[in-house]
Structure formats: structure tokens, C-alpha cells
């Protein structure tokens, strides 16, 4: 079968990355190419250094550089230079072995490898061949629902437990979790635990397991007294849970019958298209390529924020992955994607900070705004009291203060009315600390003025941000 455009594009991208990475490899110190790595390892007491010096990848890198320096890997130049012109003759002549030991290893692996026809079904078809549970009694147990034996009065409780598939379902659930976690951990080395948890849930949820069980037509063999009429076209809300439970029971039965290695080999092939889809997902790419800048919202507000120019973060989706737009005065200046809205908002702010045209334009607009009269504050270690609040600046103060405190739920300020005060007096509090206090003719005005006053309490804000980061 001819390769598709997407497959060829992926191969082309891999070759570009390979060339770039090999170019970086050639820039290492020349001394590394000639060092006796084993001798250095013997003469050091640093166990981590010893492990690295004896790493097969490090040794391979040294051998590649040595051969490249001697002109014995000339085809690599085409990859590094991204030329890849008429390569067929060079490719035929190229020797991939990097030494006698590796040559013999390669020959051995090639002789032991299965032929294309042996693995043709698994490599070209999905789902891969279902491994058979060899033990007949165990196979019967997998396909026996508890409802099929609940009226068997001649069986003891222990015998019933060994007849239906609930114990195998329990084992299969744990085995499936373990293997899927391992696949995600290996496939996505830079994904954080939050994203991996979300992805694992999608891979082992009832909807996915239902599809896998239906792909193998497992329900056709199930013995049960429960009536169900699921077909491949049954909508998710009408699907019976018997079917995903059956898939877990089969995984558990296979693990008991043939061990985890066989189960893992099968599930790795079975889940391959699901993992490929995750790898191409925009949330996964964003999560792996960029760490979340937790101060992005604060930094953005400091650059462009004012009472008339407050960044808003609007979520477009109701289910993950979430896309959040950073909007200022109706203009989208940044966008972020992540598996939770908080991180997506931070990514949107970080994206906006890269939007130089918008930042320069909005910063210039803020500079043209008239400055308000200074606010006189007198605050002690526990509170800040504002004697003469300036109401015209207070309109966006609450949002501005929230962003100054990092834009996180834990530090979101609360505003409490002081009881028995002669006028409406409001205290602004964050993480149990009084940031400010203001008095006005109404609760709304007093709240706004307390937020405005708190924005001047730079020392308290700094302490709160340090607490959050610590």
C-alpha cells in the first residue's frame, strides 16, 4: 500500500529534526570523541557519572562522531544540510554498523526478527489479533456474567466467585490502568501529571473500552441474564456497562493465563492509534513544549492594564481541552489551550505577551490616559487604611488586584464589612491578611476603594506572591 501524504510529511519532519539534532551533536567538545569512557568511569566515584559514561547511548554517540570525523558516514551530511537529493546510490552503499560488536548484534537481530508476513496482520490491520486465553475454564469465566450464575443454588459462594467474571474484571481494571499509565509515561516524557491523568481517563473510560470490546465482537460470547442490544451504532448514553466490564475481564483473564508481558504487547498495538491521536492534539503539544508561566497574567497587566483596559479571559469550550482567549476591549490578543481552564488562561496571557504589536499599541494607549490624583495611604503591618479614596480609579481595581496576586483562586481577595463602624467600612483580605480598609457611602464604593488601596500595598502583595510560589 502506497504511503499517505500525512505519513510522508511525518517522515520528512523526522528527517529535519534528525538533521538538526545531529548538527548539535557534532558541536560537542572534540576531546569527547577520543576519550576512553570506560577508563574515566573506573576512576570516578560518582555513580551517576559512571552510569552516564557507560550508557549505550553515550557510547553510540561517541562511535558515530568518530566515524563521522573520519568521513565514514558521508550520507549524514545530506541529512544535516537538509539536501537529501539523489541519495539512492549512497544509501545502498551505506553501512549502518558502527563496529564489529554492533554489526554482529544487528545481524543477530535481523535473523531473529519475524518476517513481514508473520506480522503482516498486526502491522497493517486494526485491531491487532486478539491473544487467546488458552485455559478453557478461565476463558469460560471471562465470558460469564454474574447474572448467569446467581440462581445456581448447587454452587457455594466460593464456587460462584470462581465461575463469573467479576474478580477477573477487578484484576483487569488494575492491569489496564498500570499498562496504560506506562504507555503514557514513556510516550510523553514532558507531559505533566495533570495532563497524563486526563489522557489516561480517556483511554480507560467506559466509552473507549466499549469500542475496544465491540471491535473484537466480545459481547457475542457473553453469557448473561441481562438483556442488552448494543450495536456499533449505539449512542454513548444508551450503551450498557456490561461491555466495558467484559473487556476488563478479558484483560484480567489474559494476565492470569499468560502474564503481563503478553497483555502489554497486545495493548501497545491496540492503543497505538489512540496514542497517535493524543500526540497530535494541540493540548498535548502545548503542554509538552511549554511550561506554564504562573506570573503571565500579572506581567501582562503590568504592561498594559489600567482601569479602562483590563484583560479578560474567556473560555470557548465546555469540555477539555479548553481554549481560552485573552481579550482586551473586545480584541483577542492571545490564546491558550490546556486541559484545565486555569492553565489555559495563563497560556493565553503568555501568548499575549508575545504579541508585540498589541502590547506596544495597548501600552501606548495606557500612557495617554490621564493620571489620577495620588492616594494617601497609611498602613501598618496588619492593615492599610485609605483616608481619601479616589473613586474614579476604583472601577477596575478588584480585577486588577486579583491579577496582581497571581490570578489564582487561593489568593482571591475577599471583602468584609466591618461591623459597628460609623459608616460603611470594608476590609480587603487575602490569605488571612488585611491588605487595606476603606470607608464610603455604600458597600460597593467602599469595596472598590478598598481594592484600589490594596493595590498600593506593594509589600503585602509581594509577601502573598512569595507565599504562593513557595
TrEMBL record:
Transmembrane segments: none annotated. SUPFAM superfamilies: dsRNA-binding domain-like (SSF54768), RNase III domain-like (SSF69065). Residues 101-116 have a biased composition (Low complexity). Residues 133-259 form the RNase III domain. Keywords: Endonuclease, Hydrolase, Nuclease, RNA-binding. One of its GO terms (cellular component) is nucleoplasm. CDD domains: DSRM_RNT1p-like (cd19876), RIBOc (cd00593). Residues 99-131, 366-391 are annotated as: Disordered. It comes from the Eukaryota. PROSITE patterns: RNASE_3_2. The keyword Hydrolase applies. GO terms for molecular function: double-stranded RNA binding; ribonuclease III activity. This is Ribonuclease 3.
